[in-house]
Records
---
Amino acid sequence: MSTVAYITARGLFGRRRVLLLLPLPLLLVGLALICRAYDVDPTQWGQAVVQGLGLAVVLPVISLIVGTGVLGSEVDDGTIVHILTKPLPRRDIILAKLLVAGGVSAVAAAVPLFIAGVLADGVKFGVALAVAAVAGAVAYSALFLLLSLVTRRPVLLGLVYILVWEGLLGRWVSGTRVLSIEQYVITIADRMAPTGMLDGKVSLPVALVMAAIFAIGGTLFAINRLGSFSVAGETS
Amino acid sequence: MSDAGVIHDIGYQRYEGPRLGRAAVLGALYQHGLRATFGLGRSAKSKIFPWGVAGIVLLVAVINAAVRSQTGTWLFDYYAFDDSMSWLVIFFVAIVAPELVSRDLRSGVLPLYFSRPLRAADYVIAKVAALVTAVWLLLGVPQLIMFLGGAFTSKTGMRGVWHEVGLLLPGWAYSVLWAFVFASISLLIASLTGKRAFAAGGIVAVFLMTAPVVGVLSVLPSRTANDLAGLASPMSLISGVEAWLRGRNDLGIDVGDFGVIYGIEAFCLITAGLLLLLARYRKVASL
């Protein structure tokens, strides 16, 4: 299991592709620094930077790239066969991949969010954002890992979820918020450190329970799918 | 059967007819690209995403036309329609641009293409033209539906229809601007990687991460920074060009006296995107 995790991490970091993960967090920190340097009131920029960029773009997009990359690229390249034919329980493969995906996205999203939170309000807000981002990263990673097993176009489906479900519908149709990880993250951060900047729209128990359901349910279903995985050719 | 000295002539017929040149290759590549954007000639699976987006956009246009014919007021006019569809346009180019260029990189057909009488510039022109046409169709056809809705319910006869044409044509021109900006940026990003998944993620990330920059710049305590804020994001850049050309500052973006800079940046952005694409295809890797 540790070997699978090691190979996955090397696959993620070993190539130039990892540089894709840098610009988004840097932009987040940079914007927060600019606002701080010009002494703009945090109530004016906090929402745009922390929620609009941090929680709506950085966290889901990084989780999407990493979460679909750990397994999806192996499915694409066909190298998944080498792992599947080893005498390893499928559960261990999924857990190792999920550990790497969740860990990398959590670090890549939580660190810049923590810095932005500290600049916006204080250490308490920063910690709240970081904790919420870690919870969100785990839930997103489980979801996107599952997507890379149930469909051959995981990134596009993931983008539908981020752009259409959370982005477009989440704004106007209140019912979709119950199934939106972004809203859980906002609620968790808002309840831990109440500021005027975030506006949690679901209740805290709903957020915690649903985030856990996404994380655990996604993992279990992914293990189930990998148990009867069929290797097919390139999509048309 | 065969004379001594002849190795083997197994009777294949030589082609001696006319050979089509660059223009035909370009045309074929354009047509193939345009069909590929909407998944025509491919399996049903590759039609789901482009037609899903097109369906939503069409639905919005139909609702808009219906509301207007019933109540007489727009939900969106022709310009605001493009602006409000921006997320779907982002999603559309994220689906289609990797389909156009990343696939060729991954399957390694570029050396084959360029061993024909086809130049790198032709390849880029064909792909950009295909994507521009596709995005323009995505926005222009719904605008046409809105026009038809308006024209058939016109109360003032031909004059009303003519007035409506005068609204539609600038709306179409605005869609062309959208198409060029989005096509040049997204094709450039997609041409950097052979993996469609990464290309799609990259395109969405680039477009989405620019929007909050505008939000931040527009609250900075400087009037100039506020007026120039829209330059930071392609979506607000296009709105800024609209505000400049129509001389209006009530369209959700205030360009102040800097309207002309928006025009210049839009032009430079498109040109730079195309030139960088050309530079990208100076050299292609063979497998």
Note: The longest helix of chain A spans residues 42-77.
---
Amino acid sequence: MNLTVNGITHGVDGRELATLLDVLREDIGVTGPKAGCHQGGCGACTVLVDGEPRRSCLLPAGYADGTEITTVEGLGTPEKLAPIQQAFVHHYAAQCGFCTSGMMLAAHAYIDRGGTDDHDAIQQALGGHVCRCTGYSKIIDAVAAAARGDSFDLTTTAVGKYTTMATGGGE
Amino acid sequence: MAKHTGRGIAAIEYPTGMNQNGDPSQCWIKVKPDGRIDVFAGTADIGNGSKTIQSQIVAETIGVPYDWITYDNSNTDSSPVCTGTFASRATFVAGKAAEKAALQVKQKILEIAGKELEIDPTDLEIVDGEVVAKGAPQTKLSVGDVAAAATWGHGELITGTGAQLKPYAAIIDPETGEVDLPPHSAISYAACSAEVEVDDETGEVRVVRLQQCYDVGRAMNPTLVEGQIEGGAMMGLGLGVLENCYPYYPSVEHRGGAFGSYLAPGMEDMPQIDTIMIENPSADGPYGAKGIGEMANNPQPPAIAAAVHDAIGVWITELPITPERVLRALEAKTEPRREGKKVVFDGELSVNAVSKGGITFEVPA
């Protein structure tokens, strides 16, 4: 079978019945999708298959033969982050980071489908993704910002915003 | 059969770090010939942001821009000891070690700059990456030039080390257990009010709002502190109504086989959360900081339990407050009665309102 991952086509033989997650991580070496629960329950393994978010831990790799697969590695580059990645950075939407790639791919697809910054709609769209660190509010803020098309100056996010502790630790 | 709303409040205090137990963190810093700063520390950043915070502390203490700092906690060969990221200590204890190391580096930079500028180091200060003569800001030398002079001219390496260790406390009165040191270096305080909706038919408790107030000592990076508090609220909500550490009712053979049988809060379980931070500085933490990591999930469960009592008049004395526990408590509900100075609610929990000026809870045998 041929799997096109982030624009590069890989020929993989004899692994049609393995999960797409295992083939991506172990055969192709793309480790953005995370193995969380391996039961389709946590969302950490989410990838885009022809633009649609799919739990790669539940999908036999053979089903993805001939499709275009996008993982977090394909969203943007370190030099040019995708809008959703910029929003996650700016809003501190990641802590340990394990859920982040799945969250961003699902959010990217939600915005692609015309999703808005409506709080409840974002909750609905990302409801199947579990995060144990953030309490979700900063993730929802980030997705809403990306849905609105907010632009960010990331050089001021971690660096400039809070450096002067002597003046009270705030903005 | 109806839904009942209720509101409850809880207040907590929380100690920071493993005080009295010999709980060291260490840090060392070297300055590269271009003035950029390498920080080596063993603190594991588990998503709490300790790399960011300690880098901020070093940058602030020395007086250089944040992005000059490279923070390396990648291996135990190059990094000194840090006992770990626990007990809310990463900023309070390890951050203090970073501050001490940075102070040594600052002193060394000032000494070498003093030689270069022929000015007494005590008349110099470091402002935004430049060593400046106090009162004569046109006389200055960049930290990069100082580091280059140290490397190529003076034959010196600018380094600093810092260690933070609360000494062991010795017991001075075996009768009472009194020790010779204050019990804790920093105590944080917090309060939380919870609003809940309880369905007396299904027993389901839905938390609709949490209002929280935390004394954090000093919020060096308020967004990161907020992240700890919001995450803690989610964990506290989970402890209060969803998550059971031993979810194997009635016995271990019945443990869940699926991820979903452990009820971690999802996005749609989250209520409106309003948070207030109070900066009440500690004496011992870097820049007055206290710990926020662990106390952030403490006040929600008791506040939720109090709100459930406000809603349906029964005290649930076990967590999490599951539908089954709510329904059993409602079944067993009896009117509270007085026994002398105690108010006994439902045979499970009493409130003694007069003991030592506070309220104590008693569970009769």
Note: Residues 83-156 of chain A form a domain with the DNA polymerase; domain 1 fold (CATH 1.10.150.120).
